[in-house]
Amino acid sequence: MTATTLRTIATLWPALDDALAAPTQHSWPPVELRSYLAAMERLDIDDPTAYNTARRQLERSPDQIGQRPIPLNLGIHDTMRLVEAALHETCDQIAAANQREPITPAPAEWPTRDRIRRNKLANADLHHPHRWHYTGRRPGAVHAALWLCARVEGIGWPGRPLTDVQRAHVASVAAGALHRIEAALDLADGSRELSSAHPCPCGGTIQVHGGAGALPVARCKQCGAIWSERGVVAA
User: Fold this and answer.
1) Hey, is 220 helix, strand or coil?
2) Which of 6, 173, 182 minimizes the C-alpha distance to 92?
3) Maximum C-alpha span of the chain
4) What share of the chain is helix, strand, coil (3-state, %, to 5)?
5) What are the tens digits of pLDDT across the range 55-108?
6) What is the dihedral of CA 192, 196, 198, 204, to 10 degrees?
7) Which of 37, 68, 91, 214 would you label with 29, given CA atoms 20 to 30 Å apart?
8) Per-residue pLDDT for 5 more than 70?
9) Angle at 100 between CA 56 and CA 92, to 5 degrees
10) How far is 152 from 218, CA to CA, in rounded Å?
């Protein structure tokens, strides 16, 4: 299940790239309701530790400052940055706990043949395709998702297998990431109740339904009033 989720994240990532430059047009919900839903989404996190850490990293990121050459869909942009940072943080944690140190090169005083053989092994181990590196150019979200997928599936790497706790952690982060991606791409069904700060005129609780390409609608659970993009449908 977790491996499938991670593969889906990797598969959907190009769609996020395509949507990044697309203009954002919203007519519903109204601005104040969208702000409320956005705030709820930020709090609705399956793994608070991973995403809070990721958010702090983005807050410190210098490339968020300054002008960009083309308009961006900020909702897609924020989703991509947050998911990528959360995946990186999870990979970092697993590598720090499970990945063994690279084989050290041979001392200079070793016999030439032994030194060459040892150094060849050390170089291959350092550049093992499944070794996670903390320095240099950071891999993209697709690489991070597939790296985690390989760890979940137990593919050989220079490190120990995941513990049950680590598997649960990866599953939680992956599920949260996929939820955010599907929401950003409007692929998932969803409904959410608004708080008492945004009641129906009758005082009842409003529930918003939408997603999966359907036009969003809101319904009062008390009086039954329904709103759509065109206004009040029924009351």
Assistant:
1) strand
2) 173
3) 89
4) 50, 10, 40
5) 565 555 555 555 555 567 888 999 999 999 999 999 999 999 999 999 999 999
6) 80
7) 68
8) yes
9) 15
10) 40
